Predict the structure.
Amino acid sequence: MHSLWDDEEARQYPGDLGQRVYTSRLLGRDKSLVLHGGGNTSVKVREPDLFGEERDVLYVKGSGWDLEFIEAEGFAPVDLNHLRRLAELEALSDPEMVNELKTHTLRADAPTPSVEAILHAVIPAKYVDHTHADALLSLTNNPEGERHVRAVYGDRVLVLPYVMPGFDLARECARLVREAWRDDLEGLVLMNHGLFTFGATARESYERMIRLVDEAERYLEARGAWAIHWPDLGPTPMDTVAYARLRADISRAAGRPMVLLAERDDAALGFARHPEVERIARQGPATPDHVIRTKRLPLIGRDVAAYEEEYIAYFEAHAPHAAEPKTMLDPAPRVVLDREFGLCCAGRTPKEAAIVRDIYRHTMDVILRAEALGGYRALPAKDIFDMEYWSLEQAKLARQGEPPELAGEVALVTGAASGIGRATVASLRARGAAVIALDVDEAVHELDGVDCLTLGCDVTDPDQVEMALETGVEHFGGVDMAVLNAGVFPPGTPIAELDEDEWRRVMAVNLDANLSLMRRLAPYLALAPRGGRVLVMGSKNVAAPGPGAAAYSASKAALTQLARVAALEWAGQGVRMNVLHPDAVFDTGIWSDEVLAARAAHYGLSLEEYKRKNLLGVELESRDVAELTAVVLGPVFAKVTGAQIPIDGGNERVI
């Protein structure tokens, strides 16, 4: 491990707090040190209050902030002397501690101070850094963990057996500091938890962290316990319908739709197929801080019901001994290790699933390195339960609030690069859905994000459609909703002059491709946790065709009829099928400025008059269609199928 300190970069962060921000970000950049909000940092300063009187202040990382992206506003200023007095108490309940932290924070808009604020306060050094470094956890999660720590660091660090974070840990650290503090100490090792370093400057504290972690890495390397060699497995097939079924089972156990992210590289598959995976993976997390993300244990294989029973037994064994009554969390796994599927990570959102993935990838490394050093041994189940059901950890989850109405659900949108398709992707994402966006247009990749998988796909090519579906299901776990939007609108041509190849091209895109996609979607829609849904993008031309649009009108009419039959066939599986019939949506690729001008002139209208040529006198935009699409796919229309809904501002011929 190497220091990332850069003098020029550091000069951009002036002052004690600025330097604290800079080195905190350096720590956050290295995922082998901290992950997704883990770890915390602080700095002690003297600054004047409103009366000009100097006071001692601890700026400590605020709860919910990620070190990698933290700003000065992410540090809570707390009365340092009050925190040190708290550490002298014999007891302090969690509610009392939270109250003291909040009421002695010196800025009204500051974040809630880290629950380890008191611990930071009792360490005499100006700067304090705390990480959950992979290398250190490989040493401490071991039957002879303390011996290994002593072998690496000697008396340069203090070592504390595992203590529950919060006041108890702060009090123990205060005792240890009183009894054993020396100015030449470099760190504090909390067994099975993490590493603290400190210094007179931000750079000294940061570079001590890097040096101590590097020493742990070198110690592991010298004992053949650092490098991990994975088998070369190559591409392996995956039954994506079986995978969607696993996601459905997890969603049922969770009581809500869940995204399921599969990792199937050599590392993920190699760990899932490890000959002793049951023993090494089902001991507990690398650090108890991870339990609220990953649960205590992964599911090995696919028997979700058995996992539920085991989790309920775990809760019932430990909840009666808790200091206050506990309400059981959902018993669904967050990590699944399966020989075919590899590493599967569940979350209410793609972001949550990705966090689980990142944490467990590092956990795999910690486990295997500890094994190579003599054996992986996690904390007992009771300690993990206490952290999982710790009121302060539960408060973190509660602050996330209720998820949006489509959270955990997956939608597939064709023709997603522009117009109605692009707007639909935005509307669905805004409601919490994960989206698989398909289009032949490269512009589709502009929509890419953690909650949107963009794939180039010609919907008339069955092989491309098959590949896109498999990739999307592997990425999110299934497909709950589909918006069949891709289509073509050829130039106006009388039937007598209509080219048969052009007719077949329009039918291939507007009709045949949708039939092919529906056939392939059927098994996934049947497994949707809240029931599958399909929204077909029809056209006003179905009810009121115009001259010169034979191919387009016929294709959309046939597609509507196909949707009606599907509504009849799929209702028994809980799959809803509805059709929207838009008209005159002019901000799409179909309508160029030239075509618009020509059509307006044909009717003897101005451009604005032509755009509002409907009974309500309104102009329709892609966003209007997209918003209605999202509503039809959502809970408001939960009891509607087989409907055909015009969105055209009112058309006399349709009415």
